[in-house]
Write a structure and sequence with these properties.
two-stranded antiparallel ribbon, elongated, 4 helices, alpha+beta, single chain
């Protein structure tokens, strides 16, 4: 999904499932003003939903922009019979780390989904959880 498709989805679609973990950010003034403008333009979405979806698109674009760095090991051949070398750049590591973290976050999700509605979970901020330092 790119930013143009994201704008279209805000007009018609529902938000994706969320993790139990929350993040807190302080936006630069100009970005906060832009976020407020988007929230006013799309009143069906909260600022938090907009931030979540913008971040998702940005992270996909970052992953797509990571360079392919050919290694020395041939992993297959293309349609023309030319060798395709393994990627030794940042992409494979990013993908592996993202999968690992997704599995970890997904494992925590069922407990959060079982909570009664209306009972808020404390957010995790700057290395603290429930008021205690890690």
């Amino acid at each position: 999904m790119n930013f143009k498709e994201l704008l279209e989805s805000w007009r018609v679609g529902a938000a994706a499932p969320r993790t139990a973990r929350a993040w807190s950010v302080q936006l630069p003034l100009e970005d906060a003003a832009r976020l407020a403008a988007l929230a006013e333009m799309f009143p069906g979405r909260s600022a938090e939903q907009l931030l979540t979806e913008l971040l998702g698109v940005a992270l996909r674009e970052v992953a797509a922009a990571m360079p392919y760095v050919p290694g020395t090991r041939v992993i297959s051949t293309d349609d023309h019979g030319d060798p395709v070398y393994e990627d030794v750049g940042p992409t494979p590591r990013f993908i592996e780390l993202a999968r690992r973290h997704q599995a970890s976050l997904a494992a925590r999700r069922p407990a959060a989904a079982a909570r009664k509605p209306g009972r808020a979970r404390p957010a995790t901020h700057s290395g603290t959880r429930r008021g205690k330092r890690r």
